[in-house]
Structures are given as structure tokens and as C-alpha cells.
Amino acid sequence: MNPMLDELKREARMGAVGTERPREVRVIDLANFEQRQAEIADQLWDAAVDVGFFQLANHGIDLAATREAFEMTERFFALPAETKARHPLKKGLNAGWESRAQVRPSTGTPDQKESYQITRPHMAGLWPSEAELPQFQATMLAFEAKAWTVAMQVLSCFALKLGFAADFFTRAHDPARPGYQSTLRLLHYFAVDPAQRANMGLWRAGAHTDFDCLTLLFQRAGQGGLQLLPGKDMDSQAWTSITPADELITCNIGDMLMRWSDDQLPSNFHRVRNPTPDEYQGPRYSLAFFAQANRDVMIESPAGKYAPISAEDYLQQRVNANFAKY
Ligand SMILES: O=C(O)CCC(=O)C(=O)O
Ligand SMILES: [Fe+2]
User: What family does this belong to (predicted)?
Assistant: First the structure.
């Protein structure tokens, strides 16, 4: 048995409702990335270190592609439960469908959602058929590739600032290798059950940090609820609500990158709260791309603040702490 990861001990302390506090939400413009990389790297680094989170504009994924991915996501979740249940989550592989199965160490209660995870090498038997959902597989794989490209641009900036080669993280997340374990997660938070209206102790997604290097979160205007808390401010329990916009990507630094940077890049706590009684009570959809280093890659930081661990072992410990049911 491995000793409990520090990240899990931290997370277990974050279940309280806490308070709301405004923080600057910096929007980093990725236009003309090749020519402006050094400037963008400085802006990303400063936002990650000063504020703790940031959003991306002009990231190269056109709105039509994002909207198509969301439409497919809605259609997938609208399939009969028996159909989705034929493609169940394979916990060790981060692939497949689950419903109300994720229990966060912070809350101890299941998130009020269903999710479907796409991890390229492990999708055998997990796609709905073309008859059940035409064009789903092709649309979602194309979107995954677009998200990967943006994530690698951002990570190349962090690599430069950390003194690594610009392609350090791109090689660590190589989709051509069998150990690829980056994941596109489709999320559907259920419409609020009228009996639970105003139950602010019930979480659509309980407070957590992500297990990965970097998360790109795509949200839809009007479907709010995401709140962020930079890791460096965790003791304040003062959360910042993010207003969703279709054309922006909200980014979280995850725990793999925190380790890899000897804590220079702090991971963010985040959560999705239930709507307040005066807010929209309908369903909420989001798409999250998790850049998780390939299994065989060792997470070894320059200053050696953490003991080296393979990305495979690291991810499994975190997943096991969230999905006892599987
Ligand atoms: O849906 C969201 O906005 C957040 C999802 C999330 O944090 C996660 O799945 O890790
Ligand atoms: Fe998350």
C-alpha cells in the first residue's frame, strides 16, 4: 500500500461551502502563437503564479467545432441508460461512461453528474455504434486532437519558463505511443431535482484539484457554477465564480505539473456548485481535456522536491481514491 499522497490529504480538507471572493480572471490571447510565444509564455506564467488560473482567447479552435462537440455530447447523454451502460467506465483506463459514481475525497458524496471519458488507446467496445449515434466518434476524436494541440502550446510555454526544451511536455503526451493517457471528458450535470432546489451542500462536482498537468475546460454561456480557488490560497476557502463564455477556454494547472515544477506552478482547487434558487435549474454540459503525461513517463522535478513517480502510478492512485464503486 502506498502512503497517502499529499494531494489527497489536502483535498480531504476542502469540502466546506466557504465564501465568494472576486479575483482577476486574466484572458491570455494566443493569436499568432508562433511569433509571440515568448510574450505569451511570460503572460501565462505570471497568470499561473499570481492569480492561479487563466482563460485562453483566440486559441485556434473555432466556435463551430466546439458547438458541434457540445451537440454530440448532448446527444450522447440523451441515449437510453441501457445503451450508455453497454460502454461502462473502465477505471484503470480512464475510458467509458459512469453515472453518479465519482465520490470526491472532499465531500464524500457522489457528484450529481454523468460522464463519458475518451482515452484514445482504450476505446475498444466503448463507442456507441454509428447507428446509435452517427458521427459521434469522428467528431469527438477530432475535437480531442484540437484540444491536445492547444494544451501542448500552453505546456510548451511552461516548459520554456521551467528551463526545459520547448517540446518536453509534447513528447511526454505523445498520442502516437501506447501509453498515451490524456483524456477528453464529456460531462452532464443533471437538471436540479426540485426537492434539492437550494441545497447548497449538494455538489455537481465536489472540490478537487485535477490529477493532470493541465486541464482545458470548455463551458457554455448561461451554464455557470464553476468556482476556482488557487492552491496557494486554499486556507482562505474563498472561491471565485467563473462566468462561462463559449469562446474562452478556462485553464487549471493540475497536480502533475505542480510536482514537475517543484510547486512553482500551483494546481487549482475547483468545484461546480448547485445553482442558487434564482438561477437556471436546467442541465449543465461541459467538456474537459486532461493533459495527463503518458504512462511510462517519470515525473521527476528539477529540484527533487517530490520522489519520482511514473505518470501511470500517479494517476492510478488518484483515480482509485475517487471511484471506490468500480
Ligand atoms: O464541469 C466543469 O466545469 C468542471 C469539471 C471538472 O472539474 C472535472 O471533471 O475535473
Ligand atoms: Fe476538475
Answer: Belongs to the iron/ascorbate-dependent oxidoreductase family.
CATH architecture under which domain 3-323 falls: Sandwich (2.60)
pLDDT tens per residue, range 5-61: 888 888 888 888 999 999 999 999 999 999 999 999 999 999 999 998 999 999 999
CA distance 285 to 8: 27
User: Does any ligand 1 atom lie closer than 6 A to the CB of residue 210?
Assistant: yes
Atom index in ligand 1 nearest the CA of residue 284 equals: 1
Q: What is the pLDDT of residues 185-209, one digit of tens each?
A: 999 999 999 998 988 888 999 999 9
Residues with CB under 5 A from ligand 2 (ion): 210
Does residue 147 line the site of ligand 1, with CB under 6 A? no
User: DSSP string spanning 219-235?
Assistant: --TT---EEEEEGGGGG
| 3-state secondary structure at position 245 | coil
ipTM for the complex shown: 0.98
Q: What is the rounded distance in angstroms from the CA atom of residue 252 to the CA atom of residue 221?
A: 19
pTM of the predicted structure, to 2 decimals: 0.96
Domain boundaries, the chain: 3-323
Handedness of CA 157, 177, 64, 48 (dihedral sign): negative
